[in-house]
Amino acid sequence: MIRHDLPAHGWRKSSYSEGQNAGCIEMQATADKFVAIGDSKARPRGAFVFAPRAWAAFVHSIREDTLQPAR
Description:
By secondary structure, the protein is an alpha+beta fold.
């Protein structure tokens, strides 16, 4: 799902971002308890919204290098 109604002040940049002008992925918790993920250079395009458990599973699979392609 994509959302466009998220507050501009709620975004948090990744600690891996390079400087202020670098493009990066940002996240914020939504009022309805989802996780929104957006591109700092393309905020008007909206943000993908995930259930917290789904986002945590994705992040875990990246950290553990176990992410598998979709079938």
